[in-house]
Amino acid sequence: MPTHILILILAIGEFMIGTTESIVTGIIGMVADDTGVSVSLAGQLVSAFSLAFAFGSPLLIALTARMERKKLLLLTLILFIAGNLLAFLSSGFSTLMVSRVFLGLIGGVYTVVALAQAANMAPPEKKGRAIAVILMGFSVSLVLGVPAGTLLGDAWGWRPIFAIIAAATVIPFIAIWLYMPKQQAQKSVPLRTQLGILKNRRVLLALGISFFFVTGYSTAYTYITPLLQTATGMTTAWISTTLLLAGVASVAGSRIGGMSTDKWGVRPTLYISLLAHAVILFVLPLSAQWFIGAIISIMIWVGAVQSTVPAQQYYLITLSPHSSEVALSINTSIFQLGLAIGAGLGGLIVEHTSILNLGWVSGILVLAGLSFAWMTFSQQEKEKAAVLQACCNE
After folding, report:
1. The total number of structural domains that make up the chain
2. Which of 178, 290, 323, 344 is the most buried (most CB within 10 A)?
3. Cα–Cα distance between 211 and 372 in angstroms, integer?
4. What does the DSSP 8-state code read for residue 355?
């Protein structure tokens, strides 16, 4: 089977992961009413998934380093199906919470392995696009999976949604089982040695890019609904339309980021996307006060965010080719941490100052990420110069 079809199959699995992660935001009220808990407590189902995803996947990736990758993908999908069925059959909130933690752990492993395998299968000139296709699976889940799940929840209740996801996950499972070639794991390396990638200064600087640009994004985007309501007086229907268009832009941005990485390289892609991200955040408080300007700004913003992600993932793979899955899993943890901190920081800004201040604070954080990009590439130049100097001395 052609490589691009195999990568698309992996992306379908990522679509299921993304839908399961995000679906709770659309059915949180139904879950709270049915399980007899407060909405705020039901919201911890989102946090449970994210934290398990963030902090469990690096350890699990390290522990499964010796497992053949096709077998590991199949195992994660089987467990993912089981986790969704547990959510479907849950008799109370505690069981549902257990299922969310379990699904977060499994989802993190699948995402990291799928990203690494897509990059491994693709030819050198298409690795960025391969990574982007997997990430598009997650983006599409926000555009299609969550709205569809919310509508189904209104019609049938929230429990059947998890059964539907479990049934749909059988599709990528069968496709991987039948058509995916066996992929040997990276050469077995002890956990301490794998985590030793954090001693690499360029890896640490690259992780700084992830942390600051995701934190900047989360600081503003978490509160995009009240921001639009305050700045433009948008109705709920228009906000939903704007977010849907933003989802479409995220899919396009992911694709553009992957193609740009392959054609022009990681450095220009990161520089341009991060700069565009920061600039649009600085002007957002002004452009958001103009109805059409708000829609266009948010689409450009989200597109720029998503164009950064495949370049960043690919860069980490090139920095740690022998421990790429560990690097990707740590980067995933940094992403989740940035999302959490950004949401908290944005909450403080909204509570104690004007909501319009979200834009410039977020922009400064993204510029910090851009500075880390400059530092990591400067470090690369220094290392090259040192090698050339050593060769000349010999």
Report:
1. 2
2. 323
3. 10
4. G
Same domain? For 356 and 230 the reply is: yes
**Cα–Cα distance for residue pair 235/223, rounded to 1 Å:** 15
Check if the beta carbon of residue 247 is closer than 8 Å to that of residue 147: no
Contacts of residue 323, Cβ cutoff 8 Å, sequence gap at least 6: 186, 189, 193, 194, 197
List alpha helices for the chain, DSSP H. Answer: 3-22, 24-35, 39-42, 44-63, 69-89, 93-121, 127-140, 146-156, 159-179, 191-195, 201-221, 224-232, 236-264, 266-287, 291-319, 324-352, 358-393
Nearest alpha-carbon partner for 335 in 211, 205, 216, 234 = 211
Question: Is 393 a domain residue?
Answer: no
Residue entry with tokens 């002004």: 286
- Over the chain (394 residues), the average pLDDT of each successive run of 10 is 86 91 73 79 76 82 83 95 95 91 92 86 80 80 68 82 94 92 63 67 90 89 77 76 81 87 91 94 84 88 89 85 72 80 80 85 95 90 68 62
Question: Residue 288 is inside which H or E element, if any?
Answer: none
Q: For residue 391, is it within any domain? A: no
- Token pair, residue 163, equals 């059964």
**What angle is formed at CA 129 by the lines to CA 333 and CA 195, rounded to 5 degrees?**
30
> Could you list the residue range(s) of the whole structural domain that residue 344 is in?
190-386
Q: Within this chain, do residues 178 and 232 fall inside the same structural domain, yes or no?
A: no
